[in-house]
Each structure stands twice: as C-alpha cells, then as structure tokens.
Design goal:
- This protein has about 100 residues and is mainly α.
- The chain folds into two domains: about 1-45, no CATH class; about 50-95, no CATH class.
- The protein contains four helices and two strands; from the N terminus they run αβαβαα.
- A two-stranded parallel sheet has the order 1-2.
- Strand 1 (about 15), helix 2 (about 20-30) and strand 2 (about 35-40) form a beta-alpha-beta unit.
- The longest helix is centred in the C-terminal third of the chain and has 20 residues, at about 75-95.
- The N and C termini lie far apart (about 40 Å).
C-alpha cells in the first residue's frame, strides 16, 4: 500500500466511506501524509445525498459506458489501469471536440 501512495505523491485528501476505522485514518496521516476524510451518512431515514459521493458515482457512470468496464474482464491490474486511462482520454477528447 505504501508503494501506491509513493506513486501518487500529490494526493493529500481522500474521501472514504464510513466503514473505515479510526486506526487506518491515523496510519494514513502518519505514514503517508494523507488525510482520509470520512463521508458519513446523516442521521435520519430515507434517501440522503452524501457529500462528494456524486463525484465517484458520476465517474463510474461515465466509465461504465465502455464495454470493457461492464464486467471485470481484466486479469492484469496494469491492463485494467490502461483501459481506464483509454476511456478517460476518449471522454476528454469528445468534450474538447
């Protein structure tokens, strides 16, 4: 996990689900100098919009338009990463055109 954080040194804030424990949050701050901010569900019943959740959901929705992301076809993590890059580049190129 430390290798991953060394690859992405510019990341300083990560939004996480409320399932993450306090020990992991403290470890990430001490070892990786990354702040993990828990996006907690507000008290109450029914549907509640979670802060910053739309960013993740929107990104997954955009990527799911590509067939390769409809199922887990990739057995190699590098291939999966490359397919996300390719889909993202395609999305950006269409918006710029």
């Amino acid at each position: 996990m430390l290798k991953l954080f060394r690859l992405f040194e510019t990341i300083s804030l990560v939004w996480v689900d409320q399932g993450y424990k306090k020990g992991l949050i403290e470890w990430a701050k001490a070892m990786c100098h990354i702040t993990l901010e828990v996006v907690a569900r507000p008290a109450g019943k029914g549907f509640q919009l979670l802060k910053r959740r739309w960013v993740v959901e929107r990104t997954f929705a955009w990527l799911s338009n590509y067939r390769i992301h409809s199922k887990d076809y990739c057995h190699n993590p590098r291939h999966a990463e490359a397919s996300v890059y390719a889909a993202s580049v395609n999305l950006m190129m269409r918006r710029l055109a």
